[in-house]
Structures are given as structure tokens and as C-alpha cells.
Amino acid sequence: MTDSALPQFPPGFLFGAATAAYQIEGAVQEGGRGPSIWDTYSRVPGKVARGESGDVACDHYHRYEEDVALLRELGVDTYRFSIAWPRVLPDGTGEINPEGLAFYDRLVDALHKAGIEPVATLYHWDLPQTLEDRGGWRVRSTAHHFAAYARVVADHLGDRVKRWITLNEPHCTAFVGHAVGRHAPGTREGTPALAVAQHLLLAHGLAAVELRASAAAHGREAEVGITLNPDRLLPATDSPEDAAAVDRAETLHNRVWLDPLLRGAYPDNEEATWGPMADGSYREPGDLSVIAQPLDFLGLNFYRPIQLRDAPLPEESARTAVDIGVAEVPIEGVRHTTMGWPVVPSSFTDLLVDLHRRYPELPPIHITENGSAEPDEPGPDGVVHDADRIDYLHDHLHALSDAIAAGVDVRGYFVWSLLDNFEWAYGYERRFGIISVDYDKLTRTPKDSYHWYRELLRSHRERRDANG
Ligand code: FCB
């Protein structure tokens, strides 16, 4: 690959790689960690493919030094990982587990030693089971417990971690977890799922306040953001019905988060989207001002566009929060990854440019996840020659640089993922890593995409240094 084929980015642009605690750490019963909803869910027969779980995962808990060495070799500026709430507070609240904090001390110290800036996500879906037993995200108190947990972590790690992501993809927690039922806790609910969304927004706002209060109390700096997965939603036809379907889906996928966070307002079409389900019983006066804390950055995960059409609603009594009268229509004529996701890089540019146009309030953006799951058969040399993943990354990075050229303020990009890992309900079969993991031996082998990304980062650094 010649240099000219590599996309170019502004000199201060940061490159990184991302992971999440439950997907890589393993050691679920070590170091005083309490159980999370994913430990429970993955033990329910039929929920996770082949009955797999994050029990061992990549054993990153014991092998983090090797993983940091791979990150250093890769040449990333920054690394996004998540902190497991039940490692720090095994019951979600109350007693702090020093051994849990000590693991993140070791990880963060190793990253600094390698010259890599840590970015910590406080919640990547592993709610302590004790809190789920008390109502989970359906109850308001969980938002307050989350803020208290954020404070504990910030007081402890804030001397070495400057950039915080409160929540990862609250859309998945609220709607994939509590309405589709494919993620923990795996229920199919209506109004309670909307309550979950409200409490996640509140949790973010309350935690943002705590993260900044901790920094102020210690005379430290802190940048606070949240990671969303706004979707690029396309109507299947140009009929008014499909246009209205996309409007409802915009609210379910995007506006439910972006409007309160960026504008301090709830979407104006909640009634049209959810009908009587959206009864507002889960809201209190003053919530919006807590939610709409200033954001230092917005984290954004992007994988694929979604095409939709108008569809009939189920009976009201059977209706969940994702039943909004839309159906997905497969996008034909493009390559699909092993997730079945269509590869349409231009939709990445379109999404960013469209968000920039619709939300003048947008803070700087960091792409906190982007990548692809591929078949990944190792060659005779034992190495995965993942040309499809390289194409995916290459084309999406070009699409990203097009968005920047069009005026969107994007400051960083994290590839998903550093390692093959536990891909939630799909278990270990879907591989997103730029490093392959042998799940029997727990050995790591960089794929061709790792070497490609490394070369991109090297040429970026060279240009940055040349620019002084
Ligand atoms: C995102 C998740 C991440 C990973 C990728 C493929 O929705 O944040 O943990 O599963 O999808």
C-alpha cells in the first residue's frame, strides 16, 4: 500500500483502538469483582450463541501488559477501554473494592509508561447484578448510584485519566436490552424501556457533574463526553409513509439522546413515535437541566446504515418501545460483513455532515468505534490476511476525512477493536479485532489490518512531526 492511498488527517488528529471490559477482561470471579447483568444473562440457555460467556474472554485481566505492548507497537496515541462497575463496587453501591481499582491502576500506569493516553468509559453495559435486582435502569436511584461510582473512579484515577466517557451506546442498553431483548437484561418492555432511556440520560448528567467536581476538588483537568451510536437511517422508498417511518426511527435511534443532551429538549414527536407508551411518568422537573451538561466532546460509534420502511404495529398490549411501525429493509448490491451489516462508507460521511447541519450545538466529535467483523481464516502461515477489513477501514477513514473536509469537527478515531473478543449475544464467532485471539491458547496474533493501521499511524506521525 503506497502512502498516497492512505487517508490524511489534520496534524492534531488522534488515533486509537477501543475495547470494553466484559468483552476482553475475563476473570469474572477474581479480584473481588461482583456479578454483572452480562454474567447472569450469558448463563440463561439460548441467550448467547453456543452458550458462551465473558468468563475468560481474552483474559486481558491477566494479560494486559502484553496488550499494552501490542498497543505501543501499533503506535496509537490513545486507548479507549471500559471500567467494570462491579469490579470497583461489587454491589454497585456501598463498599469499594480496592483490588478492582488496583487493576485499573496497573492498566493506566502501563499505558502511560507506553506513552498512550487512556480514555476511560465508565459504563459499557455491565450493570452490577445487585442493582438490576433492585430495578436496574428502570429506577431513578440507579442514575444516582452511577454518579457516585463515577466519583469514586474519578477521585482515584483522575490524576492519570483526563478523558472520560460516561456511557457507551445508551441506545443499546435501553432498547436492545429492554425492548428487543437481545442484550442483558434481555426483556421486552414498553414504558419501562423509555424510563431506562431517561435514567441513562440522567445518569450521564449526574456523572458529568461528579467528574468535573472531582477534577475541581483535586485541581485536575477533565474532559467529559458520552458515546452514542447515531444511525444513518434511509427510507426504502420515497413514499410519505416511509418518510414518516424514518422520522419515528430518528427519534428512537437518535433524537431521544441528541435532543436532550445538546438542546435540553425532548423530541417533539414522541407521541407520534410511541403513542401512549411515552407517558412521561419517568420524568421529573429539572431533569433536562441535569442532562444537558456541557459536553467537551461527543463520542460516536459507526458501523453501517439502516434502510427502513413503514410497517404495521403489533397489538397495543404486545407493543415494546422498539415497535414504532418500522421494518428494516436489507440494503442490496453492496458487500455485507459477517454481522450481516452492509458496507456503505459514504453513509458515514452523510451521517456526520447531516448531524453537523441539524445540530449546530455539536461539540467536537471523536469516533470512538468503527470496524468490521470478517470471516478471518488464518492462512498457512498462521496469520489472518484480512483484506476485507483493511478495505473497510480504508474506505471509512476516507469517508471520515471527507466529512472533516466538509466542515465537521472530528478530532479522533478509535478502531473497534484491538482484539477479537466476546461479541455479546453472538459470542466469540464474530471477530472484530485487528489482532486475532486463539481462545484456547489465549495467544494474540496481529492480522494484516494491524500492520496496515500501524503504517497509517506512522505516516500520520511523520506528517505531524514535519508540521512541527
Ligand atoms: C458496538 C458495541 C461494541 C461492539 C461493537 C461491534 O455496538 O459498543 O461493544 O460490540 O458494537
Q: What does this entry look like structurally?
A:
The protein has 15 helices and 13 strands. It is α/β, with parallel strands linked by helices and 468 residues long. It has a single domain, classed as TIM Barrel (Alpha-Beta Barrel). α3 runs parallel beside α5 and α14 runs parallel beside α15. It has helices at residues 21-24, 37-41, 60-74, 85-88, 98-113, 129-133, 141-157, 170-180, 191-218, 240-263, 270-274, 287-291, 346-358, 387-405, 448-466, and strands at 14-18, 78-82, 117-123, 163-168, 223-228, 232-235, 297-301, 305-310, 326-328, 365-369, 410-416, 435-438, 443-446. Helices cover 41% and strands 14% of the residues. Strands 1-2-3-4-5-7-10-11 form an eight-stranded parallel beta barrel. Strands 6-8-9 form a three-stranded mixed sheet.
What is this structure's SSE topology?
Elements: E1 14-18, H1 21-24, H2 37-41, H3 60-74, E2 78-82, H4 85-88, H5 98-113, E3 117-123, H6 129-133, H7 141-157, E4 163-168, H8 170-180, H9 191-218, E5 223-228, E6 232-235, H10 240-263, H11 270-274, H12 287-291, E7 297-301, E8 305-310, E9 326-328, H13 346-358, E10 365-369, H14 387-405, E11 410-416, E12 435-438, E13 443-446, H15 448-466
Parallel strand pairs: 1-2, 1-11, 2-3, 3-4, 4-5, 5-7, 6-8, 7-10, 10-11
Antiparallel strand pairs: 8-9, 12-13
Helix pairs in contact: 3-5, 7-9, 8-9, 13-14, 14-15
Bound molecules: beta-D-fucopyranose.
User: What does the average pLDDT come to?
Assistant: 97
**In percent, how much strand structure appears in the residues?**
5-15%
Overall shape: it is: globular
Topology order in helix (H) and strand (E) letters: EHHHEHHEHHEHHEEHHHEEEHEHEEEH
CATH architecture identity? Alpha-Beta Barrel
What is the class in the CATH system? Alpha Beta
Low-confidence blocks of residues = none
CATH superfamily: Glycosidases
Helical content (DSSP H or I, runs of 4+): 40-55%
Number of domains: 1
Give the CA-CA distance, first to last residue.
26 Å
What is the spatial order of strands in the main beta sheet?
Answer: 1-2-3-4-5-7-10-11
Bound molecules: beta-D-fucopyranose
Radius of gyration: 21 Å
The count of DSSP E runs of length 2 or more, i.e. the number of strands, is 13
Put simply, the count of helices is 15
What's the main sheet like?
Answer: 8 strands, parallel, barrel
